[in-house]
Specification:
Blueprint lengths: L2 H28 L2 E3 L5 E3 L24 E2 L6 E7 L4 H19 L4 E7 L4 H10 L7 H10 L1 H5 L4 H11 L4 H8 L2 H18 L6 E6 L2 E6 L4 H15 L2
Parallel strand pairs: 4-5
Antiparallel strand pairs: 1-2, 3-5, 4-6, 6-7
Helix pairs in contact: 3-6
């Protein structure tokens, strides 16, 4: 290959990379992502979280109700605002939630509502694919995503790995591709995320709202199992008065 030909090939390749990155940037920007300057795309646009964790949340606040575990008749609801790419979220979901499920959810005392709050593009893709699975498989698919978090988050092609997990839950490749491009689902996830930041004072993942007729209480960050028990017991006691 002549030097002139070599330069043309390299120039064409570089131009292609620039176009690819520009197109990718526009796509991510349309989905609510911004470049943080450290090599990452993060969900930051219009996302200035409130710092007042003691803010009063209206008793009749309209929380998302898309992914529910437990009875609708439960006196207390635990809203889990979580990112599939967050290690502390995985710790709660895999280590603490099973105990809460045995002690409260299975007994009809508490129900859990999972609200995806993606923190980067990979966790956004995971959240979109989770929307593809059958409703009765959502929490089991969430378990898989958290158990395999390191595998897909560190993969060279994380989207490909995520689609393989979705396939095991009955989602075809064609359906998975369509879900990843579903703007309505993406906008819903981003609206719920923004509402959590601006309305509820959520400033990170995981975050939780314990809701009952006595009010709504924000729990920021991962806490020990006993802390969740104490808060839930307080709300259950208040709901009996």
């Amino acid at each position: 290959m002549t030097l002139e030909r070599f330069i043309k090939v390299i120039s064409g390749f570089c131009a292609g990379v620039v176009v690819y990155l520009a197109a990718g940037g526009m796509y991510l920007d349309a989905k609510g992502f911004e470049y943080d300057g450290n090599g990452n795309f993060v969900l930051m646009r219009q996302a200035q979280a409130a710092t007042d964790a003691t803010r009063k949340i209206p008793i009749n606040y309209a929380f998302p109700q898309d992914h529910v575990l437990g009875s609708d008749k439960a006196a207390v609801t635990l809203y889990e605002y979580s990112s599939f790419g967050c290690s502390h979220c995985a710790e709660f979901h895999l280590d603490i939630l099973p105990a809460l499920t045995r002690e409260y959810v299975d007994k009809g005392l508490v129900r859990v509502v999972f609200v995806p709050l993606p923190i980067d593009k990979n966790s956004m893709d995971a959240a979109l694919l989770a929307e593809c699975v059958a409703p009765d498989k959502y929490f089991s698919f969430a378990d898989v995503l958290f158990k395999k978090q390191r595998d897909w988050s560190l993969a060279f092609r994380p989207q490909k790995v995520l689609k393989q997990y979705a396939a095991l839950s009955g989602v075809s490749t064609e359906k998975a591709d369509a879900c990843l491009k579903n703007d309505k689902k993406a906008e819903k996830i981003l609206r719920d995320r923004q509402a959590g930041l601006s309305d509820l004072g959520i400033s990170g993942t995981p975050s939780f709202i314990v809701s009952s007729k006595s009010g709504n209480e924000l729990i920021s960050g991962l806490k020990p199992l006993e802390d969740f028990r104490l808060v839930l017991e307080d709300h259950l006691a208040a709901s009996k008065q």
